[in-house]
Amino acid sequence: MKNIQQPGTGMAFLKAGAASALLLTGLSFTPVFATSEDDRNLQPIYHLYNEGQYVSTVSDQQAVEEILDEKISQLQPQFADLKLEVDKDFSMLEEQVFERNLPQEEEAMAQAAAEVEIKASAFALSINGRETLQVKDQAAYDEMIRQVKLAYATPEELAAWEQRKGLNEALPELQPGQANILSLTIAENLSGAANQTKPSLVMQPEQAAKYLLTGERSYTVHEGDKAEELAAIFGMELEELTALNPGIDLGKMTPGTQLNVSEAGPLVTVQVKKQQKQIALIPHQSLKTDDPTLLKGQSKLKQQGKNGRKHVTAEVETVNGEQVSHAVLNEQATLQPIDHIVMNGTMEPPSVGAGTFMWPAEDGRITSKRGQRWGRLHNGIDIAHPSGPAIKSADHGIVKAAGAAGTFGNRVIVDHQNGYETIYAHLSSIDVKVGEVVPQGTKLGNMGNTGRSTGVHLHFEVSLNGVTQDPLKYIN
Ligand SMILES: [Zn+2]
User: Fold this and answer.
1) pTM, rounded to two decimals
2) Which residues form the signal peptide (predicted)?
3) Beta carbons of 381 and 328 less than 8 angstroms apart
4) Ligand 1 center to residue 415 CA distance, Å?
5) 48: CA distance to ligand 1 center in Å?
6) From the CA of 398, how far away is ligand 1's center (Å)?
């Protein structure tokens, strides 16, 4: 606060708050040659000073106070929860004069009303000595700091830590998911002090905490705001403010406009060291073992794997939430993992027939048997099904022929390596190649209507040592 003393002036009046407080400072003025009669003729006048600059002189101190009170009343609804008051840099200095001659007093009053700023009582945060933001009071300041800490700790962790502070007690036993704060510090030097500020600059504790944690801040434009002044308040060039607010004409801002006045990143560095207990997985092993009873290429699950669990106690250090160190103090398994075991077949596929035949189609019924038909021998049987089901090798063997073969259409011949051969004709498609080992049941292709055929069917022949047999002796 500045009090301006004028030579020859007796007292300074300073107005603070809607309820006016009268402060007496300085010396009483006693005119050297004044008589008691002279004293009775003395009248006060008031010199108004704002920000150290002389504004005007008036005769009615109370009228000035009323004008400023009115100014506060008009502004108050916009800032309902703030304590508005006259700028502390405004002062009225009394002088006793014999003759009051103040010809343009109304003008002087109006000038004072226009020039004197209404401010909000506030509590300012300085970071490393630089005033950075304002909240409404110390309680709001404390809440802001608490919110900053809560960004990196739970309310429970914070409360327990604050209770432990200064006491030399053992840390409480942790349950999984819990943590003990070992230290929580803000690297920057923070200090708070009561002061006055432009009412529209006062932030809510949550907004202020977010600004400190992320640099994000917005400002709501109020009546009378000018872009240049705002840029200066937020410590940037007008060009920077313009760049931060594309699409907003800063020359034509209206009250209510939201301006982005963010900083590039966090304004504080929060360092937290915690001891924490967490549940972690113990991954299961995946094992494979040979199974000689399974064919090569086949596999079987022997045991379903399951992950285990453990409790891990660790000392973890973070800076603004980023982990910078992690040291495991203790691990305790609570559930052992179970291996995942798969059996892989090693058996070579059988290529020598067993002498027993299976039905060579996935589906179908016999539509023609072996025997004389239309004056010639029908050498096999016909099995039909309109869906064209899969055709299968009737016994183990090796593919002897596979492909188009005249009236047979697409056909496969399997040599069962024991004197038997089987033929599969009229297939729509063939899935095997010559030389391929085809254990009993191997899919050879699909039933079809290729070659000399009058509908989807399989023509199936069996021969022993080159002599065709009646297939119905082998399958049924
Ligand atoms: Zn046939």
Assistant:
1) 0.65
2) 1-34
3) no
4) 19
5) 123
6) 23
